[in-house]
Amino acid sequence: MININSRHAAFGLTMLLLFFISSTKAQTYAENGMVVSDNVIASQVGVDIMKKGGNAIDAAVATAFALEVTHPEAGNIGGGGFIVFMKSDGDVTTFDFREKAPLAASPGMFLDENGEIKNNSNHQGLLAVGVPGTVAGLYQAHQKYGKLPWAELVKPSVELAKKGFTMTYGLYNVAVRMSERDPAEDIMRNYFRGEDGEVVKPGETWKQPALAYTLKQIEKHGRDGFYKGEVAQKIEDYMKANGGIITKEDLEKYEAVEREPLKGTFNGYDIYSMPPPSSGGVALIEMMNLMEQANISSVEFNSTAYVHLVAEAMRRAFADRAEYLGDPDFNLDMPLDRLLSKDFAKTRFENIDMNKASISDPAQFGHPYGGDNTTHFSIVDKEGNAISLTYTLENSYGVKMGSDKLGFIFNNEMGDFNPVPGVTTATGQIGSDPNLVAPEKRMLSSMTPTIIAKDGKPYLVIGSPGGRTIINTVFQTVLNVLAYDMRIDRAIEAMKIHHQWLPDQILYERNLLSPDTRDALEKMGHTLRPTTNIGVLMGITYDASTKLYTGSSDSSSEDGGARGY
Ligand code: DON
């Protein structure tokens, strides 16, 4: 068994207490600053950084590294993501650290001689790995806007990995399943084991020495600690030995990009979200514009009219997403202005029949549902800065492969490219040009980190995992707060649906939509399919009258929670 010394046991006990306290609370309040993430330990790491004088960017960097340690199914240094950052002066910017296709990638790289996808290779095995962007993105954001020294922000995660933290029931569940995997996929099989070779049990301390080594390189050398030197060499060695194509050159060439945010409005609120290569901001703003046309607040929440209208808006936005969107560096003519305009929403709204479902034409566009993990966190600080950050490995534990010398898992984000050029099917596989594979291209994302502002100040900071469902989850939560006046926790928990053009069906949360409503929707021509849960939202709202932040983490997050001060 692992030797748990008393200092570690005390640390573990505190963390366990934090976990229990947070999981009984629907809302958390704070005056100065707050972090809401998928793991309370990581939220506390972010708050501690702010208490030491760090700003929201500093807290985001520290929280993101901590999630790599405590929430490794999605918290990552082996993947990528997006930050939307609203500064206290009302200015908004974004950072794009989406993974890129390696230099040796090509549009047909996943196909066999018959033009069919070979062995699910866009999702499984090292060909599915995109060049990771997380460390570069966090470093760039910190270089430009951080206050505390970089090393101070990475240090807590080095310590967490080295000294360990208390295994939770949520992690243990996964750990047992992973430990039974095929021995060939050794890193996952051994990931959650202690020095004695046994899977670490709830209440015991889980240490990750190899990850501590990698994080230490990043603490000492910043961006170069990952993209150059020992770590880069070990990544290349691992790739070469296991059929991957990512090289040191790919790593060295990777750059994060600061981009202008997309801006929309809804009934006097400003919406700031992520531009391409995420499709999230475009689709969110397009749908909010449609809702403004419809005067959504006069449509009762969860009624037949609500589900129909919202689903029709989703259908249209997802068709446009598939037709037009991809990496902006490769698609210079995306009609963003048109898609985001109120006039366009008007024409889109006019062809919604409030009594009848439209039809998604399979000869046109759509996109398959997403995989099962990504993570979002929201942060506000005492200066009035706000951060909305979503990052991912694509599936839960990404490609489930990585070097045991480095202790982190690689993404399988290449699966977000359109895999078969020219082939679009009714089941939702897309083959349109804007999102085909090309060397150094970023794959289209659905991540939708978003900040809603009122009078130039953050009002709602929100985001979620969930693949393509992310866009619709964020959309409905924003509507719940802005149009239906729901408290943040209720907006997060309220019934969600998902429609993504193709397949032509409404996914709804089981037990939250009445049979009568479902009947009425089916009579209008909709196909309905139940699912257990949509979204794992992490949100913060600000009340200008009390000057208080309110944070809430989705009840579907096992170890998540809000922390403030
Ligand atoms: O970038 C994207 O849209 C996807 N790779 C995200 C995957 C995801 O959210 C899976 N999680 N729940």
From TrEMBL:
Keywords assigned: Acyltransferase, Glutathione biosynthesis, Hydrolase, Signal, Transferase, Zymogen
Pathway assigned in UniProt: Sulfur metabolism; glutathione metabolism
InterPro entries per record: GGT_bact, GGT_lsub, GGT_peptidase, GGT_ssub_C, Ntn_hydrolases_N
Entry's EC annotation: 2.3.2.2, 3.4.19.13
Xref: PANTHER family: GLUTATHIONE HYDROLASE, GLUTATHIONE HYDROLASE PROENZYME
Subunit (UniProt): This enzyme consists of two polypeptide chains, which are synthesized in precursor form from a single polypeptide.
Protein name: Glutathione hydrolase proenzyme
Signal sequence bounds: 1-26
Keyword ATP-binding found: no
Binding residue positions for L-glutamate: 98, 416, 445-446, 467
Active site: 374 (nucleophile)
Modifications made to the protein after synthesis: Cleaved by autocatalysis into a large and a small subunit.
Gene3D superfamilies cross-referenced by the UniProt entry: 1.10.246.130, 3.60.20.40
Family, similarity comment: Belongs to the gamma-glutamyltransferase family.
GO molecular function, a single term: leukotriene C4 gamma-glutamyl transferase activity
GO annotation, biological process: glutathione biosynthetic process; glutathione catabolic process
Catalytic activity annotation: glutathione + H2O = L-cysteinylglycine + L-glutamate; an N-terminal (5-L-glutamyl)-[peptide] + an alpha-amino acid = 5-L-glutamyl amino acid + an N-terminal L-alpha-aminoacyl-[peptide]; an S-substituted glutathione + H2O = an S-substituted L-cysteinylglycine + L-glutamate
Lineage of the organism: Bacteria, Pseudomonadati, Bacteroidota, Cytophagia, Cytophagales
Species, as recorded: Algoriphagus chordae
One Pfam entry name: G_glu_transpept
